[in-house]
Write a structure and sequence with these properties.
By secondary structure, the protein is α+β, with helices and mostly antiparallel strands. Helices cover about 25% and strands about 20% of the residues.
Length: about 325
């Protein structure tokens, strides 16, 4: 049974929230019976104190991020996005982006580009934490370098964070091609939809064979993200990919392999990796707005806050968040 939790934080009761900002009615995720256990995942339980982290990669004088710097390879064995999108042409620069609450999840993000109203494919449960993540200025979304996983605080206790764990530990969990189905709750873009029950064990095996390396990152380093309108759709071209690296000598890391077949990655699990791809694309777009179009960036943030009650958001108690692979 799906449990709906109405959140009335102290800040709201005291009137400390900004005008127009409301708190959401959030749906608490219910897992299948023994769902996490069947994947080989251990939940956090009482070990919630060190589940969050933040990391920003060092930049050189030109602003280029160095993912192989010692301080990054020692902290991030996981998911890190650093790039910024650009418009395909000058006429598409600084679009007005916001939320259309009348639409359904996955169709609510709208942009006005060169006198065209277009819609971006990103689900509410991805969009809301992603805006918070980009606002923070951090690069790393998730890491699993020690005995357990750690989440950027924007994704901790959220369905999007749960999916980041599945994405990063894809090589280690059982039946990864159906891992998202450990979630019992009906979630648009995750457990419901045309690809929700599409399973390709062969594609999953092919990806996990490549992933059997000691240190991996799922990243967008040097990806040229380009956005444009196309027949009513907001298109963000560019895909994240996997790298393996050698970081055993205590110095800077060295890239030793790359898996950038987007189609093969998505076939391994369209729901798990589909979400990861969307986060990368829209993180790049939102970083562009934040850096080059501050007025439009603030407008997007206000729109998300104003319409938060209408968004389909899904939470997971911190004690139930994935902690480690058994």
């Amino acid at each position: 049974m799906t449990v709906v939790v109405r959140l009335l934080p102290v800040a709201a009761l005291l009137g400390l929230l900004s005008p127009g900002v409301v708190e959401a009615d959030e749906t608490q995720i219910v897992f299948q019976e023994r769902g996490l256990e069947n994947l080989g995942i251990k939940p956090a339980g009482r070990r919630t104190r060190n589940l969050t982290f933040e990391h920003t990669a060092r930049r050189d004088v030109s602003g280029t991020p160095d993912l192989m710097a010692v301080e990054t390879v020692r902290v991030v064995g996981g998911i890190i996005f650093v790039e910024q999108a650009r418009p395909q042409s000058a006429e598409f620069a600084c679009p007005s982006v916001g939320i259309d609450p009348v639409e359904e999840s996955g169709r609510r993000l709208t942009a006005d580009i060169a006198d065209q109203r277009v819609t971006g494919l990103i689900y509410d449960w991805e969009l809301e934490p992603l805006v918070d993540f980009v606002r923070s200025g951090s690069d790393a979304l998730f890491t699993y370098m020690g005995v357990h996983g750690e989440y950027h605080k924007a994704f901790a206790g959220k369905l999007a964070g749960f999916n980041l764990f599945l994405l990063d530990t894809f090589r280690s969990i059982r039946d990864p091609e159906r891992a998202h189905l450990a979630v019992k709750t009906a979630v648009p873009g995750y457990t419901t939809g045309p690809d929700a029950n599409r399973v390709d064990a062969q594609a999953s095996d092919a990806l996990t064979r490549w992933m059997r390396r000691s240190h991996l990152m799922f990243t967008d380093l040097d990806v040229d993200f380009v956005f444009r309108p196309d027949e009513g759709e907001l298109i963000v071209e560019g895909d994240p990919y996997w790298i393996s690296l050698d970081s055993r000598r205590g110095g800077p890391g060295r890239i030793t392999g790359r898996f950038d077949d987007a189609a093969a990655t998505l076939k391994a699990n369209p729901m798990v990796f589909g979400s990861g791809f969307r986060l990368a694309k829209y993180a790049a777009l939102f970083r562009y707005l934040k850096a080059d179009c501050p007025e439009q960036w603030q407008s997007l943030r206000r729109s998300v806050a104003k319409h938060k009650r209408e968004l389909d958001l899904y939470t997971i108690p911190m004690r139930q968040m994935p902690y480690a692979v058994r």
